[in-house]
Amino acid sequence: MAESFTPPAPFVRPAVLEDGPALAELDRSTWSTLHAVTPRPQPPYAPFFDDRHLARDILVAEAVNPAGGTAVAGYVRLVPPTPLACNAHVRQIQGLAVAGWARGRGMGRTLIRAACGAARSQGANRITLRVLGHNAPARALYASEGFAVEGVLPGEFFLGGRYVDDVMMGRPLGP
How many whole angstroms separate alpha carbon 34 and alpha carbon 134? Predict the structure, then answer.
């Protein structure tokens, strides 16, 4: 009887500038109106990192890909929601992507948990995010990780020929 191969768990680490091309390709390959409110990226492509999207705000998941090598499998962007001191206790997930080959392996869950841990280590006691109303898989994943719907902006976006709700979710960060 042949033994089945279980790939090792993903490794999550802070991004480095050299991750830019792989993260940009991941963004392009996963673009969908299921989660994106910006137009589909077109060449010439902008760099992944810029003045608003810094490497220090990104956690990268690496995992064994189908070819047997280690590759970028996903990322999460974690930032303060505003520059105001009065909500410095909050962090917000402002982007999460998982490569197609890495889906179904707990990569999204791993990234959410890593973001919560990073937020705690930055002194935050609360984490929030926004998700499109029609993105049922993401909403279910967030709910399973303790996020609750805290507000809905009905019909906030017009995507793919229809109006889509913007759903705000959040959760406290325990010790």
Answer: 7
